[in-house]
Amino acid sequence: MNQSQVNGSANQSQDPSNRIIRIFDTTLRDGEQSPGATLRPEQKIVIARQLAKLGIDVIEPGFPISSPGEFAAVQQISRELQGVEIAGFARAIRGDIDAAVKATMDAARRRLHLFISSSDIHLDFQLKKSREQVVDIARQMVAYGKQFVDEIEFSAMDSSRTGREFVIEMVEAVIAEGATIINLPDTLGFALPEEYGAMFRAVRAGARGADKVQFSAHCHNDLGLAVANSLAAIAAGADQIEVTVNGIGERAGNCSLEELVMAIETRKSVVGAETGIVMGEIYETSRMVSRAMNFPIAYNKPIVGRNAFQHESGIHQDGLLKNRNTYEIMDPEAMGIPRSMIVLGKHSGRHAIKHRLSEFGIELNEEQMQDVYDRFKAKADELKIVPDDVLVRLASESTDQQHDPYVLVDLQVLAGTQRSRIASVTIRERETQEEGTFTGTGTGPLEAVIHCLQQAIPVGAEFDDLELHSLSTGEDARGEAVVSVVHDNRRYTGTAVHNDIILASAQAYVAACNQLIMSIQASGSESHKEAKSS
After folding, report:
1. CA distance 418 to 232
2. What is the domain range of residue 339?
């Protein structure tokens, strides 16, 4: 077995026999329909730029008729992103079509995306129209749109709950009027993969003109089957899959872009397909959308979740340290995900603890290692996950010497409704054992604290991100702070847990900076050793 086979085919070169699946991103339209996920026009433009950088084939920036701000955002994205196709979304209504056509007028490549319901339950209770009336509307509106654009995507909404014969009838009608892409949505996430794939095969085989158009799949995740159904559609001949970043969207969301793309990439020899997605931009895109929409990513979310490439089990950690492929089928760094595969908790073994300490240049003898291990187990029962700064502190206690470059000695914050927040921190530096006090202000207490710490620890790192998580409830609730800083395009993360979230955030920032400093020192030490041995 060669190395690429070991990696689950994720590192194989492109196979010219594989079909290229077009990725249609509707994060800025269907994704934004998630309750609470509304974006300002300027946020949409920033995300659209990142989607283009990611290698998305088609971007659906919004619903132009819905508001002046939405129209303006679609219009600016159409003007600016000339290297990607833009879809103007519209109901099968003339006013919608006119707005979509006008908003996308300046796009280098564009399409009109029309939709109308097809299932009897939608026709009876939502549209209150007969099948004949709906087919007639679909015909007229596709013909109307065809006057303005060459590419028309037609979506028969709720196709998976519509009888096959009627889906075929509707598809034939719109193909005859000039539709070039046929989308068969699983609007309610109702279909099973074998049913969804069978629908595509039936429509492609039964609808006249189907051989002259492309087919697209749009799946929702109500039963957790959006990715599986999309893969079934690809197997049944779909040319395009509609996705959202992080799988956001109405109710349980849409087919997740990162999950679908990596399923295809990792198993492309079996799927027989590939995409044009730039893998290294996946993680940054995910983080950007999560921040803009204030939608946290679940810890166990595949691909981009915090735990997706982290391992606490001692057996897994030992295997990973010997060969990554023992317990990983994808390379997180290839997707722009920071390498942090080892998480230290109560299931971790000595091998993982020793390895992590060595990354910070800390070498222990057997007696010290046993003492650290005993302290570690006690701390793991208390904290569940032992962050790097705590591990280094345990090593300091066992060796009676300070390993942290900087220690937070004291923190004071003054807050009020009528003034700027004022903070003061006292930091002890390892080399000199001298303490220094620094003050700073900010519009919020966290900002004031960070301004203090940036003075106290002048490492030239850029403050990147702060996450706060509640670990318990009640008056004695504890919060977990996760702070990231960036230096030379590498991200360093510190974690801290405390009842006081301001103090936890400060400790996490200091931990991130210490990790940066110790990593650089350890790298320099290794380089020096290699130079001496050579």
Report:
1. 59
2. 314-383
